[in-house]
Design goal:
The complex is a heterodimer.
Chain A (H helix, E strand, L loop, with lengths): L5 H10 L6 H18 L34 H6 L4 E2 L2 E2 L10
Antiparallel strand pairs in A: 1-2
Helix pairs in contact in A: 1-2
Chain B lengths: L6 H9 L5 H19 L2 E4 L1 H16 L11 E5 L26 H8 L3 E6 L33 H8 L5 E6 L5 H7 L2 E4 L19 E6 L2 H11 L17 H9 L7 E5 H4 L6 H16 L3 E5 L7 H16 L17 H12 L2 H14 L5 H24 L2 E5 L15 H5 L6 H6 L3 E9 L2 E8 L5 H14 L10
Parallel strand pairs in B: 2-3, 2-4, 7-8, 7-9
Antiparallel strand pairs in B: 1-3, 4-6, 5-6, 5-10, 9-11, 10-11
Helix pairs in contact in B: 2-3, 7-8, 8-17, 11-13, 11-14
The chains are: A mainly alpha, B alpha/beta.
Chain lengths: 99, 488
């Protein structure tokens, strides 16, 4: 069932915003093939009428009262950022990028 | 010797005024200085912070304050939990130098209970691995044999405890990262019920599985630490709003060695040839015989879907990881590799900041979640998860706890499993079912195979954490204590 090509790995890496080298593409394609062949066995289980489990705690939608509480200090948070300006995170220009 | 004492003993010495918290802390800092060049359990030792915290406990004690049983006792914390003002890297270059602006809830509770944090322990990058070989800062060495792995991902926490650098440590368990290191270092490692300990401030790998828990040299110590960190936290949306099970009382009850009427379930499917080492199977068999002598009965239980636990886990965990690790993009914290466009900045930062196992899992998870594959992989794995939980529910009709080896093999030599990632994944064969189900499980030492420690795993129903401590403590009470060869 599983067969993952070098091109697919490159595409997935792009989707995940992960630059990969040519050498990594070769290694990962081979390794992911082995892993996928093993994990694809979940398909052997007849589970059409079985509901999925997303986590094991029987809780949904936990609410709290809508009251203002202190949060992390802005300057302390920004101090950990690689670049900042006027109380904000600074990144390269986004608008006008070719894509 | 302060460093070979249990946490319970240290707590009593400090409470009785026979040792100060500062003396106890300095003894452990000295031990760290002496053996770290060989063990490398820590990524960061906070000596100044530890001494200051210890002095504060001594002052509070002198002022007549009533403090908890672990006040003044040192603890090491896995580097995946945020610590305000103390570096937190998750074993990754992408967080090199990051100083978190807040404490994880687990860390807050340690501080409130007067425990003294010695530092942050080494781990496989973002808790993905079974050997610490995927730490970006070099591996941790097993105090039992420095040529072998200490388990993972929490190998640093387990090695710190095994090497007498700390009496207690905090780990996190997503697929076995507390229990497998416990097994291969001859220490006790417990994964509480999922939702029983808070994930707030635990840097997320697989949110539906990640569970903080205790590492210690005795079952009672693990239970004491469990009691400190457990309990409802409104900052964690999957935290269980219920009282903490009576884990300390259960550990003490088990320590009396009476298991009359306790039913131990042996999983039929685990016994069917799975590539486990004969020495591991033999030690576990002897452990089970010892439990039977204490009055326990053995029943056989069938869990037909456990065979699919490992495949389901290696779809669910990478899927959640590919989503969770999207936050490491070079914008808000950690490493940034500059580039002319934002997209390139992100791609290059992630290329430079993540190691090979993290990249593999992000790509695998992205694949399993992508349109056209979602139903066959992630969706199907979640259904298998339901079936595994049903297997547990049926097994717990017949048995009070399930017992098994913790991991199929003893500590292996460095490099033995890194070239074939799937061989590394097999280390989690017996630990993963409890993560998928959500129930608690503990690894307790049950003997040696070829001179290396073997762990026996006790699995219990959700929120019956006390049961596993009772059985583990009973086993501990009749087996000889395992002591690693001297390091220094």
């Amino acid at each position: 069932m599983a067969a993952i090509s070098r091109e697919e790995v490159a595409h997935l890496a792009h989707l995940a915003r992960l630059a990969v080298t040519e050498a990594e593409l070769d290694t990962f394609a081979g390794q992911l093939d082995v892993i996928l062949a093993s994990v694809a066995r979940v398909g052997e289980v007849a589970a059409d009428d079985i509901p999925p489990t997303s986590h094991s705690v029987p809780l949904t939608n936990v609410y709290r009262d809508d009251v203002v509480e202190p949060c992390l200090d802005r300057d302390e948070v920004l101090a950990a950022a690689p670049d900042r300006e006027n109380g904000r995170f600074r990144v390269p220009r986004i608008l006008g990028e070719e894509e | 010797m302060l460093t070979t004492s249990t946490a319970a003993e240290l707590g009593r010495l400090i409470a009785a005024g026979e040792a100060s918290a500062e003396e106890v802390t300095r003894a452990h800092l000295d031990r760290i200085a002496a053996v770290e060049p060989k063990v490398h359990a820590f990524l960061h030792v906070d000596a100044d912070g530890a001494v200051a915290a210890a002095r504060q406990v001594d002052r509070r004690r002198a002022a007549g304050e009533e403090l908890g049983p672990l006040a003044g006792v040192p603890v090491a914390v896995k580097d995946v939990l945020t610590t305000r003002g103390v570096p937190t890297t998750c074993g990754s270059k992408i967080l090199d130098g990051w100083i978190p602006p807040y404490d994880a809830t687990v860390v807050t509770r340690l501080r409130e209970a007067g425990l003294v944090m010695l530092g942050k322990t080494n781990m496989d990058e973002f808790a993905m691995g079974s050997s610490t070989e995927y730490s970006a800062y070099g591996p941790t060495y097993n105090p039992w044999d420095l040529t072998r792995i200490p388990g993972g991902s929490g190998g640093g926490s387990a090695a710190a405890v095994a090497g007498y650098e700390a009496p207690l440590a905090i780990g996190t368990d997503t697929g076995g990262s507390i229990r497998q290191p416990g097994a291969v270092t001859g220490t006790v490692g417990a994964k509480p019920t999922y939702g029983g300990t808070s994930r707030y401030g635990l840097v997320a790998f697989s949110s539906s599985l990640d569970t903080p828990g205790p590492c210690a040299r005795t079952v009672e110590d693990a239970a004491l630490l469990h009691a400190v960190i457990a309990g409802h936290d409104r900052r964690d949306s999957t935290s269980i709003p219920a009282p903490v099970p009576p884990v300390v009382e259960a550990a003490r009850q088990g320590g009396t060695g009476d298991l009359a009427g306790v039913r131990l379930g042996l999983v039929t499917e685990f016994a069917a040839g799975d590539g486990g080492e004969p020495g591991v199977a033999a030690a576990v068999r002897e452990g089970i015989e010892a439990l039977v002598k204490l009055g326990a009965e053995v029943v056989e239980v069938s869990c037909p879907h456990f065979a699919y636990a490992l495949p389901a886990y290696y779809l669910i965990a990478p899927s959640e990881c590919s989503s969770n690790l999207a936050r490491f993009d070079g914008v808000r914290y950690g490493l940034r590799v500059d580039a002319p466009t934002l997209e390139e900045l992100m791609s290059r930062t992630r290329e430079a900041g993540f190691g090979p196992e993290v990249k593999r899992r992000i790509i695998l998870g992205t694949y399993a979640l992508s349109a056209g594959y979602y139903d066959a992989y992630y969706g199907q794995a979640q259904k298998v998860r339901t079936l595994i939980a049903r297997d547990f529910a049926a097994a717990f009709e017949k048995a009070d706890v399930l017992v098994s080896p913790t991991t199929p093999f003893v500590a292996f030599p460095f490099g033995a499993r890194t070239s074939d990632p799937y061989q590394m994944y097999l280390a989690d064969l017996y630990t993963i079912p409890s993560n998928l189900y959500g129930g608690p499980a503990v690894s307790v030492p049950c003997g040696l195979s070829d001179g290396l420690p073997v762990g026996l795993q006790v699995m219990a129903p959700t929120m019956a954490d006390d049961r596993m401590y009772r059985v583990a403590a009973a086993l501990e009470s009749v087996l000889p204590t395992l002591t690693p060869p001297p390091l220094a």
